[in-house]
Description:
The chain is mostly helical. It has helices at 3-26, 31-42, 57-74, 77-108, 113-124, 128-138, 144-167, 180-206, 210-220, 227-244, 250-261, 270-296, 306-330, 335-344, 349-361, 367-393, 397-401. The longest helix is centred in the first third of the chain and has 32 residues, at 77-108.
Amino acid sequence: MQVEGFFIALVVMLLVAKLFGEIFRRIKQPALVGELLAGIILGPSLFGFFRPDENFDVFKGLAVFFLMFFAGMEMNLGEIKKASKKAFVVSALAFFVPFFAGHQAGLFFGLENTQSLFIGLLLSITAIPVSTIILMEFGLLKSKIGNTVITAAVINDILALLVLAVILQLPSDGTISVNYLDIGESALKISAFFGVVSVLALLINRQSLQVPQRIDSFISKLKTKEAGFGVLLILAVAFSIFAHYSDLHFIIGAFFAGLIFGKNFSQKHGEHAHKFVSGFTFGLFAPIFFVLIGLEFNVHSLMDSLPLFASLLAIAVASKVFAGYVGARITRFSHNDGLVIGCLMNGRGMVELAIATIGFSVGILDVRLFSIAVAIGFVTTILTPIISKPFVQKMQPSTETQYDKIAH
Length: 408
């Protein structure tokens, strides 16, 4: 694709995404549903103006980076710590119940063991970027429920990456022959990453007054424009690279960079840098991100596999809602809040697509299964805010007003 063609496509996608996002906001639905619909309309499923193109892969990665970085900046580390114990229970159930159900469904439909394990893995995912956007749309990102869902999603995606590493070690016939050396090495890298993050977060938290002052002093000596935003961005990119070389997805690093530095960055320059990140994220990257997910969906590829697709979709939604609800109830959330958490754990989106692409590239998934995986990621991303909304509206006012809310 020529440079001018890329920018024309970008402008058209952004225009249509903003248009449909505005329409859906006016009918009191999340804008991301309209943006996904824009991708379907522009993509192969309907008019075919655009098709999934590798030229957009870098842009898609940048979109996820900014979404996760902003999500971390918006959240409070203290509230994350409070939610971690409950989130672990929710995450463990919301991962392993869909994983087991998906694996059994794959075997029932005659798939090989490795394929069935991979299908189970895809159904068990909760995409952090999608959950973040939905929580922002509902004004719940900073709430107790929001902290629980995001923390559970982080744990969930770490589990997914660990299970992916194991599945990729299996031979094509699905027999168990794991390279324990590689698994152990990966576990050590991941442990080192979270060890460094924990120590750094602890040190910055203890020096919460001195750190912003020192950063302000450093930035004030720089002569370049928007130096504060540049320093913050460098920190986020460094964390993402660190996560990548620790056998984690780079979005984990972006999230923790925002979480650690978002509230402790700079007294003079912090708010200005925050506005820059917010503008980039919601003015450009988020709308295009959801359009690109919509482009991946091709309804024609599902026609020959509707029973398998319908069954896996039903299992994906039902098992996530059930497991999330049970986990929430075990950790003493109310009945309605448990349903909110269970529904919000359903979004899969980009993370599922990324892992499905890996499975397709190594030959575990064929074209049919890959198309089904894309469709499930797309449909669950659309369904999540829709099925969550009735339960969100029933939340007690006291529950919502205990925490700062983001404007819709």
